[in-house]
Amino acid sequence: MERLQKVIAAAGIASRRKAEQLIADGRVTVNGKTVTELGTKVGASDKIEVNGVRLEREEKVYYLLYKPRGVLSAASDDKGRKTVVDLFPEVEERLYPVGRLDFDTTGILLLTNDGDFAYLMTHPKFEIEKTYVARTKGIPTKEKLKQLERGIVLEDGKTAPAKAKLLSMDKKTDKGIVQLTIHEGKNRQVKRMFEAIGCPVQKLKRESFGFLDLHGLNAGDRRELTAHEVKQLRVLAETGKIR
């Protein structure tokens, strides 16, 4: 059972706030009866109409995309740039990305039409780990790596404890390859963390999301998540463990 306004919003008819107004205005019926109480819950078999039009509920879908460079993490773009949703032309459901990756960042990105799932995957309180590999200008010292692990003070707050590891370095070109694992998702967080220690990112890839990785995929490839993977991701978010 789900709240009526949430079901209306999930169908793409209106935002949740607007859906609440539609209910309060008496413009929504459930099984032929007008409903004005916002706490009303409905099930899959209930017939819902908004302004006399039958609401069609979308089946929940979940995808893993290996996001390529030069693609926007958005459902649409008013500047006409290519978005991650454009990579799913045959999918009829209304997809949107779970969180985001920068325009020039590659790697794992989830897409879905399930708002609750997206919330579990992105809210920092659920602490789902995401691992990035960055090529940096400058080779981070052990102390700088410890700074990343302890947390960096950014303009929008201090980052949570992280895991950082220098994978390789090239002293001739003064470049490093660093693995960083975080569970937050502040705007441009990884890049800003490296900028703060004086080792700006030149190239960035998200290699894992929770227990998911990019095995067998090339940039631009995608696959549906299995029902088991979706269940396990929910369990991981809610308990911090995989069963």
UniProtKB/TrEMBL annotation:
<dbReference type="InterPro" id="IPR020103">
    <property type="entry name" value="PsdUridine_synth_cat_dom_sf"/>
</dbReference>
<dbReference type="InterPro" id="IPR020094">
    <property type="entry name" value="TruA/RsuA/RluB/E/F_N"/>
</dbReference>
<dbReference type="InterPro" id="IPR042092">
    <property type="entry name" value="PsdUridine_s_RsuA/RluB/E/F_cat"/>
</dbReference>
<dbReference type="InterPro" id="IPR000748">
    <property type="entry name" value="PsdUridine_synth_RsuA/RluB/E/F"/>
</dbReference>
<dbReference type="GO" id="GO:0000455">
    <property type="term" value="P:enzyme-directed rRNA pseudouridine synthesis"/>
</dbReference>
<dbReference type="InterPro" id="IPR018496">
    <property type="entry name" value="PsdUridine_synth_RsuA/RluB_CS"/>
</dbReference>
<comment type="similarity">
    <text>Belongs to the pseudouridine synthase RsuA family.</text>
</comment>
<dbReference type="GO" id="GO:0003723">
    <property type="term" value="F:RNA binding"/>
</dbReference>
<dbReference type="Pfam" id="PF01479">
    <property type="entry name" value="S4"/>
</dbReference>
<protein>
    <recommendedName>
        <fullName>Pseudouridine synthase</fullName>
        <ecNumber>5.4.99.-</ecNumber>
    </recommendedName>
</protein>
<dbReference type="InterPro" id="IPR050343">
    <property type="entry name" value="RsuA_PseudoU_synthase"/>
</dbReference>
<dbReference type="InterPro" id="IPR002942">
    <property type="entry name" value="S4_RNA-bd"/>
</dbReference>
<dbReference type="Pfam" id="PF00849">
    <property type="entry name" value="PseudoU_synth_2"/>
</dbReference>
<dbReference type="GO" id="GO:0005829">
    <property type="term" value="C:cytosol"/>
</dbReference>
<feature type="domain" description="RNA-binding S4">
    <location>
        <begin position="2"/>
        <end position="65"/>
    </location>
</feature>
<dbReference type="GO" id="GO:0120159">
    <property type="term" value="F:rRNA pseudouridine synthase activity"/>
</dbReference>
<keyword id="KW-0694">RNA-binding</keyword>
<dbReference type="InterPro" id="IPR036986">
    <property type="entry name" value="S4_RNA-bd_sf"/>
</dbReference>
<keyword id="KW-0413">Isomerase</keyword>
<dbReference type="InterPro" id="IPR006145">
    <property type="entry name" value="PsdUridine_synth_RsuA/RluA"/>
</dbReference>
